[in-house]
Amino acid sequence: MNRKATRDSVVFSISDLQREASQKLSTTVREYYNEGAMDLVTVKDNTAAYDRLRLRPRVCVDVAKVDASTECFGSKVAFPLGFSPAAMHKLAHKDGECGTSRAAAKFGINMLLSQYATDSIGDVTAMGAGAGNAYGMQVCLTEDPATNTRLIRDAEAAGCKSLVITVDAPALGRRLNEYRNNFSLPKHLTFPNMGADMDHSDVVTYDPRKAYDAALTWTKIRHIAATTTMDVYLKGVQTAEDALEAVRCGVAGIIVSNHGGRQVDSAVATIDALEEIVDAVQGRIQVHIDGGIRRGSDIFKALALGADHCWVGRVPIWGLAYNGEEGVSLAIQLLYDEFATTMTLMGCTKISDIKRSHLSRMGPDGGFHKLQDLPDWSSKVAGPILDVHARL
Ligand SMILES: Cc1cc2nc3c(=O)[nH]c(=O)nc-3n(C[C@H](O)[C@H](O)[C@H](O)COP(=O)(O)O)c2cc1C
Ligand SMILES: CC(C)CC(=O)C(=O)O
After folding, report:
1. Which residue's CA is minimally distant from atom 8 of ligand 2?
2. Residue-wise pLDDT tens digits, 356-390
């Protein structure tokens, strides 16, 4: 893709995209996508928290050439952003997850597919054939081991590089919009990754056997991780304590996430949770983040705090709703341009130049204070503490 593509005449930012996309959706679908659990405290704070961090630009650095590319799941990606797993893209546009996948592949970024996607994992990864970007399959894990095994085998067969186990959903959060609007999947859409007998009522009526595993534990994670060739990531880790458990489990990485504020309302904004987690993990496994990222400068701030990679859930959905696959491409382009511009203005020519000392945060005295750079952990510990396959 031409990374300096033509501009849209209406949409110049993700906030414009959200506004335009939202106008095209019915109340039920708009609220399902845009809202979250209970009073939306965390939905709002996920974005607001980025504004509590400020940038400390360095000047007189030669930034004539800026390289925003990095690596994720063993693939080179255009910049440190990919698509989080989000259910039901076809409610936004008929292009669905396959359209999202084509846009990701053309730009060279990675995509995670929800087990509640409206396109199959095989069809979605086929859209990226030959493009070089990587895919991951997200699973909540159900109480039915046969369903879990089938999902994992399908993902491996489709060429997924990672298995993303969502750990913040032992049950569905209380999304008041879904109750108010009597939300359900329209009859013409299906969950092709879930098998023929699955319909959306299994999800909203909390049939845990079919939809979630309320008894998911670290022991089960270790067993699942040992049964797959894919790299395992845990999505929904929100504390240093659980990040350390993940390190002990020997998984490849974690995604610091509160499910976009759709599970526990009043959960800490992910950018606020990130710091203690990065400090606890000390570089032993990958630390990714999602939730509230709406600008290239947000990606910069997350990397500066120590994240290895960022993901967005609602952004591609708004792109789809606005203009199908082309709308998704527009969304990626905007975030790429904003991120590359932020790097340039901050005096960073490559990803490894981005440091905590580029950030300032408001302290109890009301003043802004520079953050201290992280130590170089790469020389201290290499790789996870334990090899999960060796343990079992
Ligand atoms: C409509 C919608 C559906 C989602 N479905 C899933 C899902 O099936 N599995 C999952 O792990 N997370 C799901 N999420 C959460 C996202 O993966 C991600 O954590 C969240 O959207 C990040 O916040 P953001 O939308 O502010 O970027 C969903 C989010 C949205 C908005
Ligand atoms: C089908 C839903 C359970 C998908 C989801 O995780 C969400 O809506 O946040």
Report:
1. 87
2. 999 999 888 989 999 999 988 865 544 445 444 54
Nearest to 109 by CA among 156, 158, 68, 76: 76
> Which residue of the set 89, 93, 200, 259 is catalytic?
259
Closest CA relative to residue 113, chosen from 142, 131, 90, 146: 90
Domains along the chain with CATH numbers: 14-391 (3.20.20.70)
Active site residue 358: no
Q: What distance in angstroms lies between residue 194's CA and the mean position of ligand 2's atoms?
A: 13
C-alpha to C-alpha distances, 346 to 57, 60, 152, 339, nearest whole angstrom? 4, 10, 42, 10
**Which ligand 2 atom lies nearest to the CA of residue 114?**
4
Q: Is the CB of 339 under 6 A from ligand 1?
A: no
Q: What is the pLDDT of residues 229-247, one digit of tens each?
A: 999 999 999 999 999 999 9
Q: Whose CA is nearest to atom 9 of ligand 2?
A: 262
pLDDT at 213: 87
Confidence of residue 29 (pLDDT cuts 50, 70, 90): very high
Cβ atoms of residues 307 and 290 within 8 Å = no
pLDDT digits (tens, 9 = 90+) for 199-215: 666 666 656 666 788 99
Q: Evaluate: CB of 85 within 6 angstroms of ligand 1.
A: yes
114 appears as a binding residue in the annotation: yes
Q: What is the ipTM of this complex?
A: 0.99
Question: Which residue ranges have their beta carbon within 6 Å of ligand 2?
Answer: 87, 116, 172, 203, 259, 262
**Residue 163 β-bridge partners:** 137, 232
CA distance 190 to 66: 43
